[in-house]
Design brief:
The chain has 17 helices and no strands. The chain is mostly helical. It has one domain: Growth Hormone, Chain: A (Up-down Bundle), CATH 1.20.1250.20. Helix 2 packs antiparallel against helix 3, helix 2 runs parallel beside helix 7 and helix 10 packs antiparallel against helix 11.
Length: 432
């Protein structure tokens, strides 16, 4: 599935350590989403808190990520990625482990999630994708897909492992157990990747005479004046609301339809496997076909899953089909957002621009599960929520058609260099 031209082979030979490190780092940064669906019921039974109270922490993370993600992206391009993600990853995992400690009152629970949200901006996906984007161009779609595949791998195994850990050690102890295992793997991969494939230095460390070597693309100030920027922002928000809501609530949704907790956790693992497959296939297609078409199709699949959930009784077979459709959609969209942002705005301010996009996505991903929980508390059933998600997914799919053509950064630079490549007598109209 790899597009192995001489250029892409060279990119993979030099840049594969950044992809491997990014895969584990991006996966670790999504642990709260992959596990919350399993934690929801035991926390509610133990504390008596409402579903909206338990999931409010995800909303806090989302709100803080809106200004935090672009700020972290700007810091990374100004001072260098190494100075951001190297301390950020262990701090994030320590904060996640602390959720088991800060859980004896609602005030402690909110404080723990607020701490997680603040340090979480240091490991957001825009930072891992910035690292990979600096090393890949021709094979960028597949490189992005492999980085984002980490969350798919996480979603395969973590739900059932979390369920087993909760049954054996309790939900409070499960938080530090998961953080310790992920820290051993992800922090090690990050350190080795930074040594083998150092990111580009921040602009603060680039001498003034090398300013011509800066990455091509639009500065943030110009990007925010473009219609494509705001269209992508709206798409990111709706994707976050629709797909992340379903990921967080998938286990209790299946439980409402009569599946036992272990079977529902297995269905969540199937969702993770489908997300992994969707990322890999989506990444390969992005290097060959229009990202706009791929993005639209990948949203129609979870929209179909909404219809199946709403109209059919949920057996393990139907539940598996729903999990696969949602997983493929989540997997492919994770590739599309980063890829289409780099295509429209280049790498000049990619960290800050995609930080805004991913921050708005996180806002939707945090607001969606929380609002979904509020509706569940109010109506006592997911039957009210699923039609709303269906409409949001259809609207988002249509927005991909509103995006225009990609700017041709390579064409602009080649036109600027053309007089130097073809020396000769200057035409009269230019000489005059």
């Amino acid at each position: 599935m790899l597009n192995l031209t001489p250029v892409t082979r060279s990119e993979w030979r030099l840049g594969w350590p950044s992809v491997c490190a990014g895969l584990f780092g991006a996966a670790a940064s999504q642990i709260q989403f992959a596990t919350m669906g399993v934690f929801l019921k035991p926390i509610a039974q133990s504390t008596g808190w409402s579903n909206s109270t338990i999931t409010f922490g995800i909303f806090i993370c989302a709100v803080i990520s809106v200004p935090g993600s672009p700020f972290a992206g700007w810091l990374a391009q100004r001072y260098g990625l190494t100075r951001i993600i190297l301390p950020g990853l262990p701090l994030f995992l320590l904060a996640f482990a602390g959720l088991g400690l800060f859980s004896h009152s609602q005030a402690q629970w909110i404080f723990g999630w607020s701490l997680l949200a603040v340090v979480g901006i240091l490991v957001k996906s825009n930072l891992w994708m910035l690292w990979v984007a600096q090393k890949f161009d021709a094979a960028r779609g597949m490189a992005f897909a492999l980085v984002m595949a980490g969350s798919g791998v996480l979603a395969i195994f973590v739900p059932i492992l979390t369920q087993l850990s909760v049954e054996s050690f309790g939900w409070r102890a499960t938080f530090p157990i998961l953080a310790g295992v992920l820290g051993l793997i992800a922090v090690t991969a990050c350190v080795l990747g930074l040594r083998a494939c150092p990111p580009t230095p921040g602009t603060k460390d680039i001498p003034a005479h090398q300013s011509a070597a800066m990455p091509k693309g639009f500065p943030l100030q110009r990007a925010v004046r473009m219609r494509a920027f705001w269209t992508i922002v709206v798409i990111a928000f709706l994707i976050g609301v629709g797909l992340a809501s379903m990921q967080v609530h998938l286990v209790p949704m299946f439980g409402e339809k009569g599946l036992d907790p272990r079977t529902a956790a297995v269905m969540a693992g199937l969702f993770g496997a489908a997300a992994l497959g969707g990322r890999i296939v989506g990444g390969a297609l992005l290097d060959r076909y229009s990202a706009k078409v791929i993005g639209m199709i990948s949203l129609l699949l979870p929209a179909l899953a909404c219809v199946i959930y709403y109209v059919l009784p949920i057996s393990p077979v139907a539940g598996g089909l729903i999990a696969i459709l949602f997983g493929v959609g989540v997997g492919a969209e994770g590739d599309v957002l980063g890829y289409i942002t780099a295509k429209f705005f280049g790498l000049h301010s990619f960290g800050a621009i995609f930080g805004i996009v991913s921050g708005v996505f996180s806002l939707g991903a945090g607001a969606g599960p929380w609002l979904m929980a509020l509706l569940l508390d109010s109506f006592g059933s997911y039957a009210v929520v699923v039609p709303i998600l269906f409409v949001a997914l259809l609207l988002c799919a249509g927005l991909f058609l509103a995006l225009g053509d990609y700017p041709d950064f390579d064409g602009e630079s080649s036109r600027a260099a053309r007089p130097q490549r073809h020396p000769g007598p200057m035409p009269a109209e230019q000489a005059g």
